[in-house]
Target: Isoquinoline 1-oxidoreductase subunit beta
Amino acid sequence: MPAHRAGTTTRSESRDSGTGRMSLNRRKFLGYLVAAPTLVVVADVGREAVFGGAPQASAAALPSPPQTPEYYEFVDSYRDACRLTNALLRVEVKEDGRVAFALPRSDNGQGIQTLFAMIIAEEMGIDPSDVDVTLADARPELVFNQLTGGSSTTYSLYTPVRVAAAIAKGALLDAAAQALDGERRLLETAGLTVVDTAGNSIGFGELSRLAAVPVTTPVEVVLKANEEFTILGKPRGKDDAYAMVTGQKKFTCDIQVPDALPTVICRAPELNGFPDGGPSNIDEVRNMPGITDVEPIGNGIAVRARTFGQAIDGVNALELNWNPGTVSGQSDEDIVEGLRAAELPLAVPAVPGKTLEQELIHYSRNGSALETNCAIVTFDGSRAEVWAPAKSPIAGAKIVSEKLGIGVNDVTFHVIPGGGSFGRRLFNDHVQEASEACLAIGKPVKLMWDRANDCRQGRVKPLCVTRVRAVVTDDAVASFELRYSGVNMEVDEGLTDVLTSQAIKAPGGNLGVSETFWELSVHTPYNFGVNTRAMVETNYGFNSGSTRNVYGPDTCTARELMIDRIAERLNKDPYEFRAEFVKTERLRKVIQRAAEEADWGKSMPAGTAQGIGVHQEYKCATACVVEIDARPETVNRQVRSGRTGPRVTKVTFVVDPGLLLNPLGYEAQVQGGINDGIANAMTAGLHLVDGSFVEASWDNYFYTRQWNTPPEVNVILIEDSEYPDPGGAGEVAVAATMSAVVNAFRRATGIEPTNTPVLHNEPFPEGFTQYPTAPPIPTSPTNGLEFTF
Model:
């Protein structure tokens, strides 16, 4: 197993040098006791300052003007959008005394249910196991406040939920003071009871009824100081971890809804192709064993059966002609040519002898989760009920209402924990198709995508081209320009609503949705004189999505690769160059810590090297140092049908996460992001050939596998961060890791990377076999044990 560890320093409370913000400790917040039979509390958190102090410049650098994400990034935009409806979030004390919170977010393995149980328990003085955090059904009245994405959950909900929990505790203590005829200041919570100094106690259940109010009442509260935390800041495993590894955890396809039978879609061989007429043998397929229904929907044919195996057999038996897809006849080379033609011009002219320029092609990547797309839909003609993993359930409920011709309030949308997301759950394709199938068939359906078409037809991080030009003086960088030309990056309806609602308030005004997200997320954290960045998107023929870290991995890799090249031009060490030119002291400390922990600059054998990458996003500062082995004996390893090549052997990842709430959960997210970064850099890319992707399933999509996972991984969490807010975790590690790996590859091999993943254009490994498109769902192999022992 890889080794992991975290920093163990003591938290200090002070003003953040990068933002100028103070800690939230000891401020008063407003909330409400809600009129209800038992104790119900909501929070009303007003707008906080979002603009901070100017970045610090290195004395040797040419200062660059600040870019938007340095003082206002996407997570700020989303938190501001949520403020309108924070007062609708409820912490309840039930009649049995247990505390309940319906979390308006989607947990797909990131552990936010566990985290918010910790947050509520901390403020109420109880154990997290006494808090039931469930996922809220779609609540249209929350407007923007039920979107999960952009690593924004904790940042947007931390304070409102704490306020509600603190008010709940205060109401319980007030009720107990009356019931026990004592003073509130002498009372404390113990378990799910309140006790006085004489040992008298009264349970939360009884107090909940006593604390209930007939009229909604405003209440002010002071939150617990960070120094008083006994739960937050301590490691806690995910509450559902045991259930997951023992197979007891219920996902969507485990839910038994009466008459909701397995349903699978027959899809085209080309991307977004659609049937040219109906199946010629539809009656024959309808009479196959277990098949109950075969009906056309959208871009395919829905087959409903007693089992998924029977449904797949029905799909593969259909005889269909297909119309061409949206990129019929095109391959990666055609898309790249179009993107180059669309590239926005660079502003600073090239200076002979002083200019460095590079282009990188970043091929499409699959963001599919362990659990494929799945949804259950029932419809009785007037009301619909949905069960599905969804990060934008309000948008999902709207789609269902439109497909079925009913009002959005006639849709009950249950958000089910998902088996991973990586941007995929932001989109409601599965819900839309299940609704279409339910309507066409006239019966409940349990729809599941097959893995092959999840890769071929599912949403991907689309192909893009980055260009960087830098003008370098004798000891500094006079200008640094980044251009991004990409296939259109779709964002879901919920994210679109958030961005358009907040875009007018952000610098830049009325930008488009993608441009707004770009403006709020992409920046260059170095003093490089004239510093510009711009993006353009074109080609709308792909099923694209905001895969993990969205624009960050590709733009960061382009930037950090160029920085290594600039350092070489100036005869500077890559680490020392970054530490000198970085804008903020916060990021400089992280870079220095990573270099120290990784023993940067140590002697290494020929064919091996270290690489460094730096990134700042989600209110966090990150630096990654990797070691890579590109010697022939490693590169030429043989794994059946597998991509080997150079191997990352060690990762040192340092992150300043702001206020660290659950070190164990945060570290787990970083570990996952590290493996994503390695995959993006080295092996994981889709090949578009003649209108369809070659890869179909994980058998031949080369994500980081066991033979390419680093044997040593060290995660260092800065626990004495001066930044007062909790930063994001889910996407924070991808960009810095990807860029560090590409830089290490370049240093170890002497090869100038022209694309990511860097091995994308290598021949497919021996034994690789492309799955056929007919039948549409490849037959599952049955000989796995032959290759196991």
Notes: Confidence is low (pLDDT under 50) at residues 1-24, 46-59. The chain is about 30% helix and 20% strand. The two ends are 21 Å apart (CA to CA).
